[in-house]
Write a structure and sequence with these properties.
The chain has a single domain, classed as dinb family like domain (Four Helix Bundle (Hemerythrin (Met), subunit A)). Helix content is 57%, strand content 6%. α1 packs antiparallel against α4, α1 packs parallel to α5 and α3 packs parallel to α4. 23% of the residues are buried.
Length: 164
């Protein structure tokens, strides 16, 4: 299997652990907007993570037209799972499309009019590290709401295939 596909499989496993954690929360807590996190909720952060993949890998990387998801359309964790099933398909398409061509650059124009070239490796790296950044915020919000989070790091023995 291609290296980045294996890496994304690990990311999906940690995401599944986080989904299971969220399923144990009261619905009101899952959608509670936290002042200490700029008014974001766990649900809104999940949607934000998915839309980052959609924008950078789908719209920008693959040239697809993808409608932005409204957080209010996501009612529960099962809805967010469905959003990520579609996200996973998009990531898979991106990984297959650019396999072995990670230095390919795609120009981007910012709202300010400035331009930059982003490699496909940058696009993939940005979206995956962005997810982990917000995963940490989701865990922190859960703690603030009184929930004890599971270990969502990539160190669980069943997924660690590295040997010394």
């Amino acid at each position: 299997m291609e290296l980045f596909q294996s890496q994304y499989d690990w990311i999906r496993r940690t995401r599944e652990t986080l989904f299971q954690y969220c399923e144990g929360m009261a619905h009101a807590d899952y959608v509670k907007e936290m002042e200490s996190f700029g008014g974001d909720s766990i649900r809104n952060l999940h949607v934000h993570i998915a839309t980052c993949y959609h924008f950078w890998l789908g719209t920008h990387g693959l040239g697809k037209s993808i409608e932005k998801t409204d957080s209010n359309a996501i009612k529960n964790v099962e809805d967010i799972r469905e959003l990520f099933r579609k996200t996973d398909e998009l990531v898979e398409e991106f990984l297959v499309s650019f396999q072995g061509n990670w230095e390919h650059t795609i120009p981007y124009t910012f709202k300010s009019g400035e331009t930059s070239d982003f490699s496909t490796l940058w696009l993939y790296t940005h979206t995956t590290t962005h997810e982990f950044h917000h995963k940490g915020q989701i865990v922190k919000i859960g703690r603030q709401l009184g929930y004890t989070p599971p270990d969502t790091d990539l160190i669980a023995p069943e997924v660690n295939t590295c040997h010394s």
